[in-house]
Every structure is written in C-alpha cells, then in structure tokens.
C-alpha cells in the first residue's frame, strides 16, 4: 500500500531489513529505468524490495532482486519479467564517488525505498556497512531499553 508523505512523495515500498542489517553511511536518490506496464504495477504497489541489492557494472549502477509483479490489466502478449536487473540513473560524479568509497571501505549498495516524486519513480540507494550479529543484538537491546523508558514515563504521567 502506497503512503503519501508531507513533502509530496508517495512511498511505494521500503526495505525494512536493510536498516536492521546495515549501518547506512550515505544515501542517494536515483531514477529507475522501467519497461512497459511496470509503472502502473508500481502505482498498485506490487513490488518487493527484500533481498535486493545494487552493483556497479561497467561504470553503471544496476539493481538486482527487485520483484515487480505484473500489472493486472496489462497485455498478455508480452509476458513481463518480475525479477530482472534494472539500470539506475545517477550523475557521473555520484557513480565515481560510490565506486571510490566502495573500493576503499568495502561497502555495499542497498536499496532502502521506492517512491514517486513528481510522477517519476525514484529509488533511495544507500552506501552501507554490514552489521555483525553482536551489533544487531546491541541495537535491539538499546531500542528495548528506550521503549521501556518511554513506557515508564507514560505510566508515571498517568499516575498524577
């Protein structure tokens, strides 16, 4: 289900696992090259970002593993490919920066969200470092402690 935000963008899908498994260091907004009725399928929010990743191939950025289910009213003559590689549209200086940082720091390119901005499909791409299992546990423990503190504050406020 697509949700509209305050800045006029309509979020189609988010990769919630990415924020848990990776430390996001930098993000970019990029366009996506789509075919046929894929935009209409995205308007119906028929997309999965789980297990998707991006990679540099021949000085271009490609995203793999995004599954866009076929549009319900599309022509059946040309069967769509739900999971295929799609080219991302970035400026040359952004691609060079990503390539340089990825080579130096061994970072991954992870899609965070897919959304409409001014009628165009955009993808939020993150340069991220993988978290170790210990880091994930620590993050979960911090969230639980923060939530418990908020609950205690709320309970204390109701007692008055």
From TrEMBL:
<dbReference type="GO" id="GO:0070929">
    <property type="term" value="P:trans-translation"/>
</dbReference>
<dbReference type="GO" id="GO:0070930">
    <property type="term" value="P:trans-translation-dependent protein tagging"/>
</dbReference>
<dbReference type="InterPro" id="IPR020081">
    <property type="entry name" value="SsrA-bd_prot_CS"/>
</dbReference>
<dbReference type="GO" id="GO:0005829">
    <property type="term" value="C:cytosol"/>
</dbReference>
<dbReference type="InterPro" id="IPR023620">
    <property type="entry name" value="SmpB"/>
</dbReference>
<comment type="function">
    <text>Required for rescue of stalled ribosomes mediated by trans-translation. Binds to transfer-messenger RNA (tmRNA), required for stable association of tmRNA with ribosomes. tmRNA and SmpB together mimic tRNA shape, replacing the anticodon stem-loop with SmpB. tmRNA is encoded by the ssrA gene; the 2 termini fold to resemble tRNA(Ala) and it encodes a 'tag peptide', a short internal open reading frame. During trans-translation Ala-aminoacylated tmRNA acts like a tRNA, entering the A-site of stalled ribosomes, displacing the stalled mRNA.</text>
</comment>
<protein>
    <recommendedName>
        <fullName>SsrA-binding protein</fullName>
    </recommendedName>
</protein>
<dbReference type="Pfam" id="PF01668">
    <property type="entry name" value="SmpB"/>
</dbReference>
<keyword id="KW-0963">Cytoplasm</keyword>
<comment type="similarity">
    <text>Belongs to the SmpB family.</text>
</comment>
<keyword id="KW-0694">RNA-binding</keyword>
<dbReference type="GO" id="GO:0003723">
    <property type="term" value="F:RNA binding"/>
</dbReference>
<dbReference type="InterPro" id="IPR000037">
    <property type="entry name" value="SsrA-bd_prot"/>
</dbReference>
């Amino acid at each position: 289900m697509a949700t509209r935000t305050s800045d006029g963008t309509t979020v189609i899908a988010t990769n919630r696992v990415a924020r848990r498994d990776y430390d996001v260091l930098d993000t970019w907004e990029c366009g996506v090259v789509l075919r046929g009725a894929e935009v209409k399928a995205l308007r119906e929010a028929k997309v999965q970002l789980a297990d998707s990743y991006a990679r540099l191939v021949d000085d271009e950025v490609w995203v793999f593993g995004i599954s866009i289910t076929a549009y319900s009213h599309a022509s059946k003559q040309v069967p769509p490919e739900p999971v295929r590689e799609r080219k991302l549209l970035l400026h040359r200086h952004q691609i060079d920066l990503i390539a340089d940082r990825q080579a130096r720091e061994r970072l991954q390119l992870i899609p965070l969200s897919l959304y409409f901005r001014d009628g165009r499909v955009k993808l939020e791409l993150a340069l991220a470092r993988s978290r170790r299992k210990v880091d994930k546990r620590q993050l979960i423990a911090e969230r639980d402690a923060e939530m418990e503190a908020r609950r205690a504050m709320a309970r204390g406020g109701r007692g008055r």
